[in-house]
Amino acid sequence: MDQETVLLTGITGYIGKHVALRLLKAGLRVRGSVRDLDRAEEVRRALRPHLRDPDTLPDMLEFVTLDLNRDEGWDEAMAGVDILMHTASPFPLAEPRDAASLIRPAVEGTERALRAAARAGVERVILTSSVAAILSRDLPADREVFTEDDWTDPAHPTAGAYVRSKTEAERAAWRIAGTEAPALRLTAINPGLVLGPPLDRNFGSSVSIVQRLMRGTDPMLPRLGFAAVDVRDVAEMHLRAISRPETEGRRYIAAERFMWFSDLAAAVQEALPDRRIKERVAPDMLVRAMALFDRSLRPVLPTLGRRTDVSNARAVADMDMEFMDARESAAETALFLSATGVG
């Protein structure tokens, strides 16, 4: 695995930076894609403190400019690459007015990345998908736990624009690898809600949920829940997939446990006992009534009270994963936000 080069899309993201760190620590060269080269130094600053020998960074990390919505640069970016890790995908907190504005770049960006890899002869591909591509469906009456064999139904009431974007993007990847470019050896990593300390203050929507709790933005908590996972485990799964042929052609749920919003709040409160974190849960009827006047609440209504337990058995068996306690991940996230003055 030494000295192989990985093209890592979305390197400026919360997950992307952690993946880059894992790859560099393992001795791989990283070519990170950014939409604007001005953000390259941001990534370097985030990574340097965590490297054993920061002086090697100029030799091990380079940057290319790529856009999910444009064809330019993809072929050049793939030159000399051994592995593609496609983590870039939009993740908004609020439902967009135009679903296509979210779905199109996710799907077309995935198609551009995989087709460019195929043209360049890059066969190994690791795709960052999401449990969103798994959970929006009804399970059979005899089963209560979702697995990698489950696929989201785009017509399901819980399938909003983000869910459909992740589902359609992953479907497109498997379609390309299955028929259009069968030489591609694809693995999909499907994380739940990603928690854990960011590498810098430029973090994504999932960390913003903890920030929202710390700031007391909401008077009460909706009865919402999610499969949760530590960002460092997600990054580790990306790395382990490279050297494990048994992961090729398979999807892997990255999640440690199911957490209600109130569980997340309790973990934050325990980490920050001097803060007053609101833990009271709002009745579903109240949330539904508020949604009549607050459009931003409407997308969550179909998921109120819905429990979505998932199995991580495949990741444990094929990757030897031992997942971190997601409650501790939430606590570490809160401590990071508090220490850096952004929580």
Automatic annotation (TrEMBL):
<dbReference type="InterPro" id="IPR001509">
    <property type="entry name" value="Epimerase_deHydtase"/>
</dbReference>
<protein>
    <submittedName>
        <fullName>Dihydrokaempferol 4-reductase</fullName>
    </submittedName>
</protein>
<keyword id="KW-0560">Oxidoreductase</keyword>
<dbReference type="InterPro" id="IPR050425">
    <property type="entry name" value="NAD(P)_dehydrat-like"/>
</dbReference>
<dbReference type="Pfam" id="PF01370">
    <property type="entry name" value="Epimerase"/>
</dbReference>
<comment type="similarity">
    <text>Belongs to the NAD(P)-dependent epimerase/dehydratase family. Dihydroflavonol-4-reductase subfamily.</text>
</comment>
<dbReference type="InterPro" id="IPR036291">
    <property type="entry name" value="NAD(P)-bd_dom_sf"/>
</dbReference>
<dbReference type="GO" id="GO:0016616">
    <property type="term" value="F:oxidoreductase activity, acting on the CH-OH group of donors, NAD or NADP as acceptor"/>
</dbReference>
